[in-house]
Design a protein that fits this description.
The chain is an alpha+beta fold. The protein has 17 helices and 29 strands. 55% of the residues are buried.
Length: 705
């Protein structure tokens, strides 16, 4: 990379702030074309089997009901790479909650009432929904999510581990987790002149367009998808989901626009989730804590519909010195909903286990947990041998320790008490890869000195509109308020999804390239611009397609302080601190928000969030925000996010790394390590809820005893 680094204006206020707080921002469910009908899907009530009959006649007689779509009368769909979208095509029920019908009516209330009244008969079959580390049907897949090899091996782990004077062998587990964005998944679809327009709550309109074009066998140019405002997704909206397909089917069937909004209680079954994992860590080290052997073995689940393997062992391939290493994944296909992306897939779950193991190793070796990580800093990426483009983990650990007041910490667990409260501190590292995808963009100059940048990026609440305008203004050399950004529609230049912390890097590169070309063209002109203005276009397929000789990652360090109530078993995080090395931070205001949001999500992962599979019914029991507990403001008294200034010329013209996901990666482990430091109890299953802690705390008593 030889391009000059862009230095955007810092701290710009979000451009969509006023639109959101005044209600001007229009989401997918806010679109109501003339004559719009409303659809409500019908989920299967068996965990596995076949639909034998759908008694639609009684429902069709209800006032206001226009249609009932089933596998017998729904439009036929073309081929799809994602079989979770091949809905109402046959009578198979692969898991509870799979959609078996759709009711279309005049109002949402009528559609919902009719859907609940629709009687469906099934031929139920035996089901298997529980993940076990010894499940007889476990297999080794070819790849894990992201195209990573399922298994990697270096050296001779078994021999090196056996010869190590300090050894750790521990297993960590997590239940399933669900994304639960504030805005529910929704789509409004309308067929007109054999063309399809869909307003969709999605992290990538271009991707939804291409998938719908394939399913309905249309040229992509006859499908338009708009995702102008999206109220969060965390991965669950990173691929097309049932609402856009069902709404389009219902609209084609009825000949009228159709809107479909999923009720929150159905999200657990149809929009993806983080799969549960059982992770075994074995680490062998010298007496001073230097690692010689590391094994990370992951057992997880997928569905019978689609293989998705959480790549939880992959981060261990990049983190620490490990001349002898084995990292592998095994998976079993169960009669459960299909897992998918959830914020930092692989890294969040895998680093919880790895960083918990590092804390245990520090205790076994008698080395401070921060110092242990410093002693195991590699010279190059262990798995590939490639040099790092930049690696700021050491700087993050040292700066975090300074800010947190780590020096002088008493390493003894379970000795700090304030009445009934035990308190402790913990640390964990974080990493996330730098991911880039091809993107297109255009930049247009008006004769009056205004500029318009067009790119089908999606702002899912991260501030993409603001940062892309900053990148454009700096590349053009013009004031920020002279630049307008259009995004969120497949009618704009194609762009990848907002996912993998790759959005700003991918879209921004295309925007920078288009604006640079426009600036050069304008510099070569004399006199006023033509009335139609001047446009430059860019495509970064060639640049992003080149294989980098560098290992490119963002890094971070998380510190946590907790209070554990010995009477109730409740854990409260009194302080959270994150320090990150993520290249050039383009907008401190929105970046800090992203880091803190990720850390808060990690707090939920550690202490409150879990999805329990009911083995009898084959269903997740936490189906709303009253039972699936996400953190509230009162749960996070003090959260701070800082970063080190990292100059990395091997990334993109902005010198930036992704920041949307690394905030969650190390938080859960830091909190779990702090709970151990507070109590002396090492629990290896998340979340650390009172019912799991209390049996271990009762023996310690309280000041009231």
């Amino acid at each position: 990379m030889t391009s000059q680094l862009v230095r955007p204006t810092t701290g710009a206020v979000r451009r969509d702030a006023r639109q959101k707080v005044t209600g001007e921002a229009r989401y997918a469910a806010d679109r109501t074309p003339p004559g719009c009908l409303h659809a409500c899907p019908v989920p299967a009530t068996v965990a596995r089997g076949r639909v034998t009959a759908v008694h639609a006649d009684a429902v069709l007689k209800l006032p206001g009901v226009h249609a009932v779509l089933t596998h017998e009368n729904a439009p036929r769909l073309g081929e799809a790479d994602d079989p979770t979208l091949l809905l109402l095509q046959d009578d198979r029920v692969p898991h509870r909650g799979w959609y078996v019908a759709v009711v279309v009516a005049d109002t949402p209330e009528i559609a919902r009432e009719a859907a609940e009244a629709l009687a469906v008969d099934y031929a139920a079959e035996d089901h298997d929904v529980l993940l076990r580390a010894d499940h007889p049907d476990l297999y080794t897949p070819e790849e894990a999510n992201g195209g990573h090899p399922a298994v990697r091996e270096r050296g001779d782990f078994d021999a090196a581990f056996a010869a190590s004077p300090v050894r750790l062998d521990a297993t960590y587990s997590m239940s399933a987790l669900h994304n639960h964005p504030m805005e529910p998944h929704a789509s409004t679809a309308h067929w007109e002149d054999e063309g399809l327009t869909v307003y969709d709550s999605s992290q990538g309109a271009s991707t939804v367009r291409d998938v719908l074009a394939g399913l309905f066998e249309l040229p992509p140019e006859r499908v338009t998808v708009v995702s102008a405002f999206v109220g969060g997704g965390f991965g669950s909206k990173g691929t097309p989901r049932p609402p856009c397909v069902l709404a389009a089917m219902a609209s084609r069937h009825t000949g009228r626009p159709v809107r479909l909004v999923l009720p929150r209680r159905e999200l657990a079954a149809v929009v993806g989730h983080r799969a549960p994992t059982v992770q075994r860590l074995r680490i062998g080290a010298s007496e001073d804590g230097v690692i010689s052997a590391l094994s990370h073995e992951v057992v997880t689940q997928t569905s019978t519909v689609k293989e998705f393997v959480e790549q939880a062992a992959v981060p261990a391939r990049a983190m620490y010195t490990s001349p002898h290493s084995f990292t592998g994944h095994r998976v079993v296909a169960l009669d459960v909903p299909s897992p998918s992306w959830m914020r930092a897939p692989g890294e969040a779950s895998g680093m919880y286990a790895l960083e918990s193991a590092m804390d245990e190793l520090a205790g076994a070796a008698g080395v401070d947990p921060v110092e242990l990580r410093l002693r195991n800093e590699p010279d190059a990426e262990p798995d590939s041998g490639r040099p790092f483009s930049s690696r700021g983990l050491v700087a993050c650990l040292r700066e975090g320790a300074r800010r947190f007041g780590w020096e002088g910490r008493d390493p003894r667990p379970g000795v700090r008490r304030d009445g009934d409260l035990l308190w402790g501190t913990g640390v964990a590292s974080a990493t996330y890869p730098v991911l880039l995808s091809p993107s297109k963009a255009s930049a247009h100059a008006e004769p009056d000195g205004r500029y318009t940048v067009r790119v089908d990026a999606t702002d899912i609440g991260t501030g993409a509109r603001t940062v892309l305008a900053q990148i454009a203004a700096e590349a053009l050399g013009v004031p920020l308020d002279s630049v307008r950004v259009e995004l969120g529609s497949s009618a704009l230049p194609d762009a990848p999804v907002a996912g993998g912390s790759s959005g700003t890097g991918s879209w921004g590169w295309a925007v920078h390239k288009a604006c640079t070309a426009l600036r050069e063209e304008l510099a070569g002109r004399s006199g006023p611009l033509p009335s139609e203005g001047v446009t430059a276009e860019a495509d970064t397929e060639e640049e992003t397609g080149r294989e980098s000789p560098y290992a490119r990652h963002a890094f971070g360090a998380h510190f946590a302080e907790v209070r554990v109530d010995t009477v109730t078993g409740e854990v409260r995080a009194s302080r959270l601190l994150g320090v990150y090395a993520a290249g050039r931070i383009l907008n401190p205001r929105t970046a800090r928000s992203q880091f803190i949001g990720g850390m808060t999500m990690g707090l939920g992962m550690a202490l409150t969030e879990h999805s329990t599979m009911d083995p009898a019914f084959g269903d997740y029991t936490e189906r709303d925000l009253a039972s699936y507990h996400v953190p509230a403001c009162a749960d996070v008294p003090e959260v701070q996010a800082h970063w080190v200034d990292e100059h990395d010329p091997h990334l993109n013209p902005m010198g930036s790394k992704g920041i949307g996901e690394i905030g969650i990666v190390g938080t859960a482990a830091a909190i779990a390590n702090a709970v151990h430091h507070a109590t002396g109890v090492r629990l290896r299953e998340l979340p650390l809820t009172p019912d799991r802690l209390l049996p271990h705390l009762s023996a310690r008593g309280s000041t009231a005893d």
